[in-house]
Design a protein that fits this description.
- The N and C termini lie far apart (about 40 Å).
- This protein has one domain.
- With about 140 residues, it is an alpha+beta fold.
- It has three helices and seven strands, in the order ββαββαβββα.
Length: about 140
């Protein structure tokens, strides 16, 4: 039986080590609260502080079954809580442990942190469907 996965790995600059530590603490708090939720908020990814000076960057990555939607929601929450600004985004890959038809692909998200909104998102499967509908 095939197994399906979504993988991603990206950095988020929190501007200061204090904000990065605060973000890590918020993630841990949300993870603890998720044990009591029917629909967990931070399932499908991990967060750590990059172990290099100035220690203000988060490493956000899947945990063997990534959830890009949850990551986007968490980053937008961080933007609000820690007054982050600028544009940020990440890509993800969707794959299968077996060569199933239409089991591979990916996508990307672009966020405006200051406006706390999604600027754009794409999925390669949707893109391909649209491209193939175009007149020849």
């Amino acid at each position: 039986m095939p197994l399906y996965f979504i993988h991603f790995s990206c950095h988020l600059d929190m501007a200061t080590p204090a904000k990065a530590q605060g973000a890590l603490e918020l993630f841990r708090q949300c993870r603890a609260e998720d044990a009591f939720r029917a629909a967990p908020l931070v399932r499908g990814f991990e967060v750590s502080v990059v172990d290099a000076p100035p220690h203000a960057t988060l490493w956000l990555h899947d945990d063997d079954g990534g959830n890009p939607d949850a990551l986007v929601a968490f980053v937008l929450r961080l933007a609000g809580e820690f007054d982050l600004v600028g544009h940020w985004g990440f890509q993800f890959a969707r794959w299968c442990s077996y060569r199933e038809v239409e089991s591979f692909g990916g996508g990307a998200w672009a966020l405006d942190l200051g406006a706390r909104r999604i600027m754009a998102q794409t999925c390669t499967a949707d893109w391909l469907d649209e491209a193939l509908k175009a007149p020849a």
